[in-house]
């Protein structure tokens, strides 16, 4: 059949690569693909891009990838400076291109890229594109919470709005290097504000507008902004959230701690609430609409060094207290633009939608900077993906003819639970690439995403990366090679992922261990704000000479990478080290299981035993039979040693506000340490915890 022919062609295509030098950790192995073994083993479950897709892709084949990857590793300075030259630099960087020390035993950890180069990321996102003739192209589409409310800005219009705000900020005394805290929902004003800060060299710190007053005040106290920017209220689904009240409370707290804020700029979000009922502090609070439109629509750029800070962003807090990650300008710019272009095979005709909020790194790198640097048309969505119903995403896809859709496994799983009808009711014909980020995507969720959402036609870019890495690190390049459901596949250009054992020794070939990165890449974070020591201790001391990601990873015989979850979450049952992702995937593959999270609990004999929290698909009742069948599913897919000791029925799971499961809290619930739940301020819905505790004895 057709499929076979395609498969064979593809392999023949790569056959000539058999002579490619391939040492693990240096050049990724694409063994099966290279040697043609792929056809032999069925369980490999390779999903090939179509020939049509590959032919039009930026990277159409494994050999093209290997060629580019090899160059990026052997000559990083040459590789990256060639790419960087496509951006606008007021002045070129120093000869060295980059300098790095990741080895704590050799002194201070230090990473610099394009040092001495003078540029501005806002200029590269906007002015440069306008000058290139994209002035009338839509830069941002805005889709409101309620259907029928939308807006858009062309590149020229966006530039004008950014300049007006930038002029205002300068008037308020914001200077290069000053911090600005942004507490805004997904309005166009959010990327506008980020870009306005970048334009004048101010350091933005976006705080996700779902965080509590306490979390917001902690961040304000930490970075001491000159100005705080927010809006009066926002509608999320059917609910109205009074953001300004939260900011008021946060500013009271910060003032008490010696960080008073003199200027709070408030956007009047009329669709959510009229201004007259907003509580107001004269002298401090200013309505955006009263001042910003009066400012000139042109604003000179503040030229900055590539190594000047661009933004400060706190991690999502899945594993503990959030860390203030600092990114600088030049390397981040080059890296986000390049990863966006290749991982999503971006073409000027694309309409791109990333569902992430700008409050997270994904919204920084892949809603704002990466797409705009490429001159893309990008959707900013204010609402919730299941409002007014679970078909909203596909409604938006059809409305804007979205071609690239990038989201998180948590959303994929929840839409999968709601049923296919919500998806198949819409055409989705425009889609050509899907993306996933935030957690490992379970193979069963991957298949549903691929088959149902993408009509078995769109490659999935399962992008593994972190707030700290700035951009994609391990990711498919759609079109380049076959995918395996649940694997993030191979490293991006310039990235050297290594898997090490407990002693920090690199393991080659097929293996499993701690995921580290050797050497730096342009998008790497440079420090934790105000705490370089914590930066070194957390990331560079665990394994000397490497950046330690905190994640576990295995590499299969074909060289594909599989993220197994956080290493802190690894469970050791009778000497078997089991990653959470593996067991959760086995559970989620059961047709009645919507979502699962596993943790380890102490066990007299085995050391640790597996305790599983399971959410069933809509309307499915709990039963003893189902419990047994779930356990059987794990026994069959992984082995008896991984069978959960207990199944805890969970109507919902505790998640961070970015949608990640917080296993740290589940561990405490599982072991009955209910008074030690720790910091729960980054939880999306604290009620879930009580529900779970009340179901403990079922
Ligand atoms: P904190 O560091 O505060 O605990 P966090 O790690 O959740 O929070 P982020 O930087 O937003 O904060 O998330 C990065 C982490 O998300 C990665 O370390 C990894 O565990 C997980 N992750 C992201 N993308 C993927 C992916 N495609 N596959 C597997 N895991 C992923
Ligand atoms: Mg992290």
TrEMBL record:
GO terms for biological process: acetyl-CoA biosynthetic process from acetate. Coiled coil: none annotated. One of its GO terms (cellular component) is plastid. This is acetate--CoA ligase. Residues 65-125 form the Acetyl-coenzyme A synthetase N-terminal domain. It is an enzyme of class 6 (ligase). NCBIfam families: Ac_CoA_lig_AcsA, PRK00174.1. The keyword RNA-binding does not apply. Residues 134-520 form the AMP-dependent synthetase/ligase domain. It holds the Pfam family AMP-binding_C. Keywords: ATP-binding, Cytoplasm, Ligase, Nucleotide-binding. Its main location: cytoplasm. InterPro entries: Ac_CoA_lig, ACAS_N, AMP-bd_C, AMP-bd_C_sf, AMP-binding_CS, AMP-dep_synth/lig_dom, ANL_N_sf. Residues 582-660 form the AMP-binding enzyme C-terminal domain. Belongs to the ATP-dependent AMP-binding enzyme family. GO terms for molecular function: acetate-CoA ligase activity; AMP binding; ATP binding. CDD domains: ACS (cd05966). Its EC number is 6.2.1.1. It is found in: Cytoplasm.
